[in-house]
Amino acid sequence: MEPTRFIWFDGELVPWGQAQVHVLAHGLHYGTGAFEGIRVYATPEGPAAFRLGDHMRRMVGSAKAFRIPLPWSAEHLSKAALEVVRANELPACYLRPIVFLGTGTLGINPTGASVHTAIAAWEWGAYLGKGALEHGARVRVSSWRRIGHEALIPNAKGTGQYINSVLAKQEAITAGYDEALLLNYGGYVAEGSGQNVFLVKDDRVGTPPSTAGALEGITRDTVMTLLADDGHDVVETMVTRSDLYYADEVFFTGTAAEVTPIREIDDRPVGDGKPGPVTARARELFMKAVTGELAPYRHWLEYA
Ligand code: PPE
């Protein structure tokens, strides 16, 4: 990761190297925090953040779910994020807002811990590598199950929850794959370690519902909207491991991953092993929407 110049930290822009945290921060010990990931795209009218308000509202929701008293509104965080883009003079970037508990107390009871909020920006290329973006990722069903509603809050982006994703991702990478696919406790497909998943079968597009343990991804919602408006049949549906093996196409969606084709699952080619036409169409529409080329979706862009 290449450092940029400024990070917004508790209300002001500070030099990148000065945005520091104490080793006894509560969030470091117990994962008491919430974060977001937002992409800013270069457009003819300058840098534009994609669905910024939706991301910041989700962050407010995540903080609420974990009872972290986030001292900023979604509107204020959106303004601060655009300030970070301008201050760093970045034509395109990835934004990482985070709220976490700091010092003041240690032990599981977080009462008395300070609350800190930061927004950083840096350049982030293809999430699973350029090769995966072009030719499709090689994926393996994880031996780890996706966190469920029984123990955690799968719809929130709680920092501590991501140790589940880290375990799955490490396992997949160590075994030579690009990414993991996680099943839920019931054996249904939930999502990737940091992406939602879509399947195409007989021209029908399906994606697991949030009740399956999938995060309600903003890219997922975007792609569902774009494909439905384009005349495709798009449904939320429970997906089994065997559905994956019989699918014509499978792809990931996410802020960092954008639309990434999957070419292989558990050493079996998806379809003919090449990204299919619906995946290509989804990616094309998505890239046009995020760069302001599609007039009906320009309200999704916020210019820095
Ligand atoms: N599921 C998970 C578990 C997840 O973390 C993400 C985003 C998604 C689905 C897709 O959600 P959305 O970005 O709203 O479409 N993962 C973020 C963090 C990835 C990381 O490696 O860190 C992201 O893509 O920004």
Tell me what the structure shows.
By secondary structure, the chain is α+β, with helices and mostly antiparallel strands. The chain folds into two domains: 6-122, 2-Layer Sandwich (D-amino Acid Aminotransferase, Chain A, domain 1); 130-290, D-amino Acid Aminotransferase, subunit A, domain 2 (D-amino Acid Aminotransferase, Chain A, domain 2, Alpha-Beta Barrel), CATH 3.20.10. The chain contains eight helices and 17 strands. The strands form two sheets. Strands 8, 9, 10, 11, 12, 13, 14, 15 and 16 form a nine-stranded mixed beta sheet that branches. Strands 1, 2, 3, 4, 5, 6, 7 and 17 form an eight-stranded antiparallel beta sheet that branches. The longest helix is centred in the N-terminal third of the chain and has 14 residues, at 52-65. The chain is globular, with a radius of gyration of 19 Å. It binds ligand PPE. Ligand PPE binds next to helix 6 and strand 14.
